Amino acid sequence: MMVSLKNKEELILMQKAGRISAEALAAGGRAVQPGVTTWEIDRIIHECITSHGAKASFLGYGGFPASACISVNDEVIHGIPSKKRVLREGDIVSIDVGAFIGGFHGDNAFTFPCGEISAQARALLDATNESLYEAIRAAQPGNRIGDVSAAVQGYVEAKGFSVVRDYVGHGVGRKLHEEPEVPNFGKAGHGLRLAPGMVIAIEPMINAGAFPVRQLSDGWTVKTRDGSLSAHFEHTIAITENGPVILTKI
Ligand code: MG
């Protein structure tokens, strides 16, 4: 496994990419409301990224046709923004966005409520968001990837939710997806040891029902098999001697 370590200068560049990613995500989130299309949200995000002189990491990545992945309700990840997808009251809207500047990527995601949402949806969003922070707290130098994975899995399964198995977090740097893989399920004390200079995207994808997912014929959109709701929260994290640092912050 080839895990790239970033030096202090590179981490400063990554902080810039992370901050723009976070600003784009926040701008997209502010636009989430009934009657808005996911295409309009993507335009706002694209405008935010380019206004900072950055490029949208996802645009053209593997042929992806937009700047953000926007996945609604039972869509888990990789939803394609569309003029036909009009948000409705009660939807939950997962937005995943990355920005590339100075040779480095930032990557982050958040699931936004559209107006008033159900108690079950609220519980799913809260648990997924909190599991991300549990995982970040576990991302200490000297700990292992399995400690991060187990933190997510333990937290959400105790709430009755399930962890998507087919997609995982990843290293981030000059490439959007680098080694190592960062699963949201696993055993504490196992896997690669975390070291200062590593940068990883931790991104729990959590289903209200069972964990199996399927990909639609558009070649991108991933949905829960059982039609249950799914949430997705993500931060890009630098492992430092002083502990984990969130790079995708405004
Ligand atoms: Mg990611």
What can you tell me about this protein's structure?
- 28% of the residues lie in helices and 26% in strands.
- With 250 residues, the chain is of the alpha+beta class.
- Helix 3 (119-138) packs antiparallel against helix 4 (145-158).
- The longest helix is centred in the first third of the chain and has 23 residues, at 8-30.
- The two termini are 32 Å apart.
- The structure holds magnesium ion (MG).
- Magnesium ion (MG) binds at residues 107, 170, 201, 203, 234.
Describe the secondary structure blueprint for this structure.
Blueprint: H1 8-30, H2 38-51, E1 55-56, E2 68-72, E3 75-77, E4 92-101, E5 104-113, H3 119-138, H4 145-158, E6 162-163, E7 169-171, E8 178-182, E9 199-202, E10 205-207, E11 213-215, E12 222-224, E13 230-232, E14 235-240, E15 243-246
Antiparallel strand pairs: 1-4, 2-4, 3-12, 4-5, 6-10, 7-8, 7-9, 9-14, 10-13, 11-12, 14-15
The structure holds magnesium ion.
In short:
The chain contains four helices and 15 strands.
Task: Describe the structure using short key phrases.
single chain; 250 residues; 4 helices; 26% strand; binds magnesium ion
Residues in helices, as a percent range: 25-40%
Taken in chain order, the helices and strands follow as HHEEEEEHHEEEEEEEEEE
**Got a strand count?**
15
Bound molecules: magnesium ion
